[in-house]
Amino acid sequence: MPDYKFYYFEVRGVGEPARMAFHYGGIPFEDIRVPQQEWPDLKKKMPQGTVPCLFIDNGKIKLSQSSAIALYIGRKVGLAGRTELEMARVEEAIATYKDLYTKMADYCYTMTGFKDMDKDELYEKQAKPVSAQYFTLLSKMLKKHHNTFVASQKPTVADFFFAEYLSSVNGFAPELFKGHEGLLDYVKRVHSIPQLQDYLKKRPKTAW
């Protein structure tokens, strides 16, 4: 089995789905959580100057980008779709997640202390309209699969992206879920997956 070293910051963020996929499949890996003060030096070693980044076989192969890494591990452990259509649905769902993430980024980063912007203005102009649009869309995606998961009736890495994001947003803006309570049930469903229980119980608690 290849040697895996996974680099990301000391948060869940966009790196958590890959961590969850590793634990879901029982694949050993070194989970390297990078303190901010160490990042300037480490950044030089990253092929795109970013994390998450996965080093394979002692760094002979380096893979960047959160979705690429999560899908790479997901394919190994049965979390990337079982048919060609399901595989496409997984990629569709992750792309939708990225749209949501990008459009609400300033608000979320401000609420978690990574940016210093006007949170009240961002709430009205960004969080409320974007969450209303995408929470409705996500609910429709779940309904297609009998309110189980977003890309099929089995979990995929796309669910890990959404569940972690929604869990974080619920931590600082629970009122956004009014009328979308089913999404919180969805988060609980993902976090109840048996293969994840040991990891979820012991992972560090972070706001994001």
Automatic annotation (TrEMBL):
One of its GO terms (biological process) is glutathione metabolic process. It comes from the Eukaryota. Keywords: Transferase. It is an enzyme of class 2 (transferase). Residues 83-208 form the GST C-terminal domain. Residues 2-81 form the GST N-terminal domain. Pfam families: GST_C_3, GST_N_2. Transmembrane segments: none annotated. It catalyses: RX + glutathione = an S-substituted glutathione + a halide anion + H(+). Its EC number is 2.5.1.18. One of its GO terms (molecular function) is glutathione transferase activity. SUPFAM superfamilies: GST C-terminal domain-like, Thioredoxin-like. Belongs to the GST superfamily. Sigma family. PANTHER family: GLUTATHIONE S-TRANSFERASE, HEMATOPOIETIC PROSTAGLANDIN D SYNTHASE. This is glutathione transferase. It comes from Bursaphelenchus xylophilus.
